[in-house]
Amino acid sequence: MNPWPRFSSLWHTTSMPTLTLGDFELSIFSDGIYPLDGGAFFGVIPKIMWSRKAAADEKNYVQAGLNSLLIRTGKKNILVETGMGNKLSERMVKFYGQPAKLLSNLATAGVAPEDIDIVINTHLHFDHCGWNTVRGQDGKIVPTFPRAKYYAPEGEWQYARRPSDRDAISYIPDNYDPLVQSGQMTLLKGGEEIVPGISVKTFPGHTAHMQAVIVEGGGRTACYISDLIPTTSHIDLTWGMAFDLYPLQTIESKKLYYAKAIAEKWLTVFTHDPKTPWAYVEKDELGKMVAKGA
Question: Which of 229, 288, 233, 232 lies closest to 254 in space, CA to CA?
């Protein structure tokens, strides 16, 4: 059931945004939208402020997107993030629904699971790596993308093995442990180049080891910044989420990111924005952060 039927005309129901970056073709594919508590989404920001940017329903839920980035290099198909997937518990479905649209949206564009060569997870929260695996008819967990080499931050995986009581619900071991055990998932230290022109960089704050994915081609740069800046409504330095484990580090990481991204006109890809999957972040004449469409 779609918890947001009145938003049926959002971009991901009609087309998948695509642009070229040198030799790379970048496309956004959605796993759908889901309801998220507005207070959790915006943390300490008062509702009187965040409600101007994100409409809430009578239960205080706002809409959140699940945006994955497909990078076609000409030789490989690289998928950044795999959404929420279809393995949530009944309890979690009551909170979030289970849109599970990624595979069907990829299929509409002629992309089969076997076509994916590389999967990159920025971190291992359930809404970022849910389609890493699926449950087979025999109940066994198997890779959704059988040919793919998976990558995720090593520090994130180590933490996920013993998460705090505060965020244990965010981790579902079936999304990654079988891949690590089989050797199909490579654990990253941070800073590695995955293929020429595509690398990862650690931006702590949301979690201690979350990594952004940076794509450089044709003299231009795009960055899947993940939950450091989940939507265009979070571009202000101090607008974070209640889910951020280290909110002061989130601010410092944003400063480091903007020092490069604004000066060099990087395209920022937003993981949870249901309306604007990517944009250029700039400062206006008053020094306020604004998002300019790609």
Answer: 229
Amino acid at 262: I
Which residue is listed with tokens 């249901």?
274
- Concatenated DSSP letters of the chain: --S-GGGTTSGGGT---EEEETTEEEEEEEEEEEEEEHHHHHTTS-HHHHTTTS---TTSEEEEEEEEEEEE-SS-EEEE---S-S---HHHHHHH-----HHHHHHHTT--GGG--EEE-SS--HHHHGGGEEE-TTS-EEESSTTPEEEEEHHHHHHHHS--TTTGGG--GGGTHHHHHHT-EEEE-SS-EEETTEEEEE--SSSSS-EEEEEEETTEEEEE-GGGS-SGGG-STT---TT-S-HHHHHHHHHHHHHHHTTTTPEEEPSS-SS-SEEEEEE-TTS-EEEEE-
Position 197, amino acid: G
Angle among Cα 50, 211, 85 to the nearest 5 degrees reads 75
133 touches 93 (CB < 8 A): no
Q: With the C-alpha atoms ordered 147, 153, 155, 161, is the resulting torsion angle positive or negative?
A: negative
Name residue 107's amino acid: A
Nearest to 73 by CA among 114, 23, 118, 18: 23
Prediction pTM value? 0.94
> Per residue in 202-260, pLDDT tens?
999 999 999 999 999 999 999 999 999 999 999 999 999 999 999 999 999 999 999 99
| Spatial distance between the Cα atoms of 268 and 233, rounded to a whole number of angstroms | 13
Q: What is the pLDDT of residues 135-152, one digit of tens each?
A: 988 989 999 999 999 999
